[in-house]
Design goal:
The protein is an alpha+beta fold and 294 residues long. The protein has a domain of 203 residues: Ribonuclease Z/Hydroxyacylglutathione hydrolase-like (Metallo-beta-lactamase, Chain A). The strands form two sheets. Strands 1-2-3-4-5-6-7-8-9 form a nine-stranded mixed beta sheet, sandwiched between helices. It has a six-stranded mixed beta sheet with strand order 10-11-12-13-14-15. α6 runs antiparallel to α7. The longest helix is centred in the last third of the chain and has 23 residues. It is globular, with a radius of gyration of 19 Å. The two termini are 37 Å apart.
């Protein structure tokens, strides 16, 4: 049984992380004027935020929701993904929306419409599309986990970062569900980490993994392009991934894990070939990616 007091829960989370490093409930009735669920599964919280319940699997004991938030990047809306894992009336947030305001709205709707309060959060990296709402979580006394490298990167950017860190891996327990966290290394951003929800076949890869419709790597201003392929290899071998495993990227549509990993690797290979051609004068220099962090 999970402690109900946030402070006791935070201490329990810290104990779980340290240990790892060393070694549906019915929705409440909507209040008048509250957002309404569409098709029974999707809740629109405004033009920039929505919540969708993912289809349950036979092996996944928890309810899992996909939250999507948008921010203007390069003059157009950029949608980012995150997850919420719910068991009974407790919830775990995987990546925040872009802003504190969006995060506050998401937390309030989860409490009112889903009947669950976020007790702990995890961020895959320190860019605003993954950790832009950490300040709101801190203000509410919600523990935020992330890799040690993510905390160091957040400090270098001067933005709020995780208050509980792990070097390599950690495991969180939410009822009958285990959420395994893994720091894959420097790829899209310093300290990229991912999460596997077990039992079940669902992985949250964050911006380290591109969806199959992506035509380029997106923002690479903080990326380690040379090491990024090793991050993908580490992710592919850390957990038993196959095409039955569903992977949620930081942007775009979820899909079969191995397919998304292969596509991301192809984008990296294409970028490397273009840069090599530009270096030896056989091709134009590639256009720089959008410089806004995402």
């Amino acid at each position: 049984m999970i402690d109900r007091a946030p402070q006791r829960f935070a201490r329990r989370v810290l104990a779980l992380v340290l240990c790892a490093c060393v070694a549906g409930a019915a929705r409440s009735t909507s209040a008048p004027g509250a957002p309404a669920w569409t098709d029974g599964e999707r809740l629109v919280l405004g033009a920039d935020l929505e919540l969708t319940r993912l289809l349950p699997s036979d092996t996944l004991p928890s309810r899992v929701y996909l939250h999507r938030s948008s921010s203007e990047v390069g003059g157009r809306p950029m949608w980012a993904n995150g997850l919420v894992v719910v068991e009974d009336d407790d919830a775990l947030l995987l990546d925040t929306p872009w802003t504190d305001d969006q995060t506050a709205r998401l937390l309030d709707v989860l409490a009112r419409e889903v009947g669950a309060r976020v007790r702990c959060a995890f961020v895959t990296h320190a860019h605003p599309d993954a950790a832009g709402g950490v300040g709101e979580l801190h203000a509410r006394g919600i523990a935020v986990l992330g890799s040690e490298a993510t905390l160091a990167f957040a400090r270098s950017l001067g933005v709020p970062g995780p208050d509980v860190t792990f070097a390599d891996e950690a495991t969180l327990v939410l009822g009958d569900t285990r959420v395994r966290l893994f720091a894959a290394g420097d790829g899209h951003a310093p300290g990229n980490a991912a999460a596997s929800i077990e039992p079940g076949a669902l992985v949250f890869g964050g911006c380290m993994v591109k969806d199959v419709s992506a035509r380029d790597l997106g923002f690479t201003g903080d990326a380690d392009l040379a090491h990024w392929p090793a991050c993908l290899d580490a992710l592919a071998t850390r957990w038993p991934l196959d095409d039955a495993t569903w992977l949620v990227p930081g942007h775009g549509e979820p899909g079969p894990a191995l397919r998304l990993l292969r596509h991301t690797r192809e984008l990296l290979d294409t970028r490397a070939r273009r840069e090599a051609s530009a270096a030896d004068g056989t091709a134009p220099t590639p256009a720089p990616d959008d410089r806004e962090r995402r």
